[in-house]
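Q: What structure does this chain adopt?
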Amino acid sequence: MPNSIRPTRLLLALAVLAAVALPASGCGTSNADEERGRILFKQKCGTCHTMAQAGTTATIGPDLDDAFGPARASGQGESTIEGVVASQIENPRPSNDNPAVSMPPDIVTGQDAQDVAAYVALYAGVPGAAPPTVPGGPGAQVFANNGCGGCHTLAAASSGGVTGPNLDEVLPGQSAAMIHKSIVEPDSVIAKGYEAGVMPSIYKTTLTPKELEDLVAFLVKSTSGKSKSG
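A:
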């Protein structure tokens, strides 16, 4: 069934593009953070949309590379695409309860929405777009692809996020099974000083078993031999 409704999704996305491309022209946001937008896209949008640069393959909503590739090829600029995405985020069309043709309102707002729109405008439909390659093996790549460094500090990944716990401090001494559970059930054990719901509970479905295995192995290796913070 997903393949049978895919053309409908694509036509919907292109219809939205055609409807708002003209008024959206020149609406680029100079203060947007595209890298932050990538992290937010992975967390908030990647469970429904395919986009090659984000490394997402969901098929609930339109494939954004398919949707914006023709517009980009026809000469539509990033500012126009950014305006289209921002408009669709702010006012999803059509608005109904069918996730195959309508996404939830206010999935991201304010600066978050600007950052996501700018990120999509930069990469959606770009030929050959792919997640940036990082050193450290497959687990390090999973860590990077999913924006983990935007929330966590981890020396091995050269990341300094502070939204979530410092992994160099909280992971030493934890078994692979414990780390795996903290990824797929992040609210099962809450780190001191943090609240439930800070980490998205999406990775059990958005990561493949192999990606989870690689990520856990990377985290175990990266924090082994360190002293756990009290």
